[in-house]
Amino acid sequence: MALLEARGLIKIFGKLTALNGADLTVYENEFHGLIGPNGSGKSTLMKCVAGAEIPTSGTVTFGGRDISQASPAERARAGMSLKFQITSVLPALTLYDNILLALQAQCSLPSLVFSRSRGVLHDRAMAMLEQFRLVDRAAEPASALSHGQQQWLEIAMALAPEPKLLLLDEPTGGMSLEERRVTGELLQPIKKKCSLVIVEHDLDFIRDICDRLTVLDQGSVLDCGSVSHIQSSARVQEVYLRRA
Amino acid sequence: MTETTQTTSLPLPGRVGRQRRWRVLPIIEVAVLVIAVLLPFVLKDYLTIYATRVLILCLFALSFDLVWGYAGIMSFGQAVFFGTAGYGVALIARDLGVTSILLVLPAGLLIGFAFALLLGGFLLLGRHPSSVIFVSLGTLTGSYAADRVARGWYYLGGQNGIPSIPPMTLGSYDITEGPVYYYMTLGILLAVYLLCRFLVRSQFGLALAGLRENEQRIAFFGYQVQRLKAIIFSFAGAVAGLAGSLYAFHEGFVWPNMLGVVISTQVVLYVLFGGSGTLIGAVIGTVAIEAVSFWLSNSYQDIWPIILGVLLLLVILFRPAGLVSLILSERERVGNFGRLPEEGDRGSS
Which residues in chain A have Cβ-Cβ distances shorter than 8 Å to B70? Predict the structure, then answer.
C-alpha cells in the first residue's frame, strides 16, 4: 500500500521551473532513492513533500490524506520527518537535549511546562544515542561533533519521534568513505520501522540500501523502478552520460 | 535542577572519571539575593526608594529577557505592557477607588497579559513565522502608538498622565514607599524570578531554546512555533504588567513615557548589558545601568549620558554576551534540560 503519493508536482521559482509534473510513490517499509543530475529537482521534490515548499500545483497525499497545503508541523504530526541537506542540529545544546527536543515535540503544553515526559523520554533518548554511536558524547554540545557525527545526530533526531516516513536529503554529504559505510549500517535497522526517501549523489551508497529508485531530470521523472531496472535503463544511462 | 552537565559520570573525552565543577550561576544568584536583602540596612531612606524603583525595573527586564534571551523574539515594545498596566491600575485606583494589593496587582498582571496576547496574536500568529524585523518594528510601532494615544487622550490625563495615585493597601494598611515597599517588591521579584527559572529550565524551556536556535528546524519536528511564541510573549507581557502596576503605585503617578519607545529601548539595554538568556543577567544589567546612571548624574551632570552611552557601547562591542559572561561559561548559560545521562543508563534501552 502506498504511504506517500505525490502527483503532478509543479514548482516554479520566478522564471525557473524546478519541478515539472513530478510523481513519487513510496510504499510502507520501502527504502526509496531519489537520484538525478545536479539541478534535476530532487531537493525541491523533497521539500514539497516535507512542506518546506508549497508546490505551485499538484497534490501530495500521505497515509491517504491530502497534505498538499499542510504546514511542516502538521506533516510532522502526521508522521513525517525530515533531515535537511544542510546539517541543522542545534549547536549550543547537548546531544542529549537535541534528541529530547525532537522527542518531546508532540507533548502537550502542560506536559512540557511541568516536564512530565522527561523521565519517560529519557530511555528513548539514550537508545537513539546508543543506536547512532553517540552515547559517550551525550553531555557535550552538538557543536563539538565532527561533520559526519552531526549528520548522524540529525538522522537520530529525525528518527527519534518514530516517524512513518523519514526523508533524508543527502545524509552522507561531506562524509568520509568510512563514515558513509557506517551511515549505511546505521540506516539498515530502521527498515522494519518506517519508510525512507533518500536523496543522494553517491550511487553506490544508494544502490546498497534502496529497494526502488526514482530518477529525475529537469524537474520530471525520467524513470522509476527497482535498482536493477534503473541500472539497466538506457534512458538513465543516457542522461548520466550526457551530463558526465 | 538538571543543569549539571559537567558532573555527568559519562566517560567524556579528555576527562578521566568523575569530575565535579562548581556551577557559577546559583552562586551569583544567591549573592545578588543576599545583597538585595541587606541593602536597606545600609542605604539612606531616599536611596531605598531609588533601589525599590530599580527592583521594579529588574522585574520589567525579566520580561524582556524571556522574550529575547530565551525565545529569540525581539520586542522593542515591552513598555506597552508595562505602561498599559500602570495606567490600568491608576484608573482603577482613581475612578473605582480600588487600591487593595490583592486586586490591583492581579489586575496589572492581567492587563499586561491581555495586551501582549493582542499584540502578539497580531504579530506572531500568522500562517507563516514572522521575521525578527517584522516583530521588532511591529512592537516598536505599538509602543510609539500607545505613547501618542496616551498623550492625546484627555481621560488618561494627556501629556501630564495621571497624578496622585493613592497608595496601595493591604486591609487598612497603606503600603507606601520605603523599606516595606522595597521588601514587598523584592519578594515579588524573587517569586517571579523563581517561576521564570522553573519555566526556562523545564521541557518548555528546551522548546524555547529550540525556537531561539533554529525556529525552522523545530517546526519540522512538529512544534507549533507561532503558538509557542505567542504563549511566551503573553507570559512576558503579564510580568511587564506586574512591574508596571508596582511602578505606578510606587511613583504615585503614571505618564505617557511609561508606554513609549525610550523605556522600551532602555529595557533592551538592561538585558544586553547584563547578559541575555540568563535571567540574572537582566537583574545585574538593570542594577548596573541604574547605579552608574545615578552616580554619573550626580558627578558629571552635563555629560553623564555620553559617558553612559560609551560604556554601554564598549560592553556590547567587547562582551556581546553581557557582563555575566565575564564569569559564566557559555555551556552553563545555555544549560541542560533533560535528566542527565548516568553511567548505568548506557544501553538501558
Answer: none
How many residues are listed for chain B in this entry? 349
Q: What is the pLDDT of residues B277-309, one digit of tens each?
A: 999 999 999 999 999 999 988 888 788 888 888
User: Which among A32, A10, A88 is positioned nearest to A200, based on CA atoms?
Assistant: A32
Please enumerate residues of B whose Cβ is less than 8 A from a Cβ of A: 5, 8, 10-13, 127, 199, 202-204, 206-207, 209-210, 213-214, 216-225, 231, 330-331, 334, 336-341, 345-349
Residue A24: predicted pLDDT: 94
The amino acid sitting at A178 is: E
Instruction: Check whether B168 has a pLDDT greater than 70.
Output: yes
Classify residue A150 by burial, with Cβ atoms within 10 Å: 0-12, 13-18, 19+: buried
For residue A232, give the C-alpha cell. Answer: 539497466
E runs forming strands in chain B: 168-170, 173-175
Mean pLDDT score of chain A, rounded to an integer?
Answer: 90
How far apart are the C-alpha atoms of A216 and A220, rounded to whole Å? 5
What does pTM read for this prediction? Answer: 0.89
User: No. of H helices and E strands in chain B?
Assistant: 12, 2
Listing from the earlier edge strand, what are the strands of the sheet with A2-13?
Answer: A16-27, A2-13, A57-62, A65-66
Evaluate the CA torsion angle A156, A157, A160, A166 in order and state its sign: negative
- Residue B320 in grid coordinates: 556581546
Under 8 Å between Cβ of B79 and B268: no
Domain coordinates of chain B in residue numbers?
A: 23-337
- Tell me if B265 sits within 8 A of B144, measured CB to CB: no
Three-class secondary structure of residue A17 per DSSP: strand
Q: pLDDT tens digit string along A6-51?
A: 999 999 999 899 999 999 999 998 999 999 888 889 999 999 999 9
Give yes or no for residue B316 having a pLDDT over 90.
no
Residues of B in contact with A149 (CB under 8 A): none
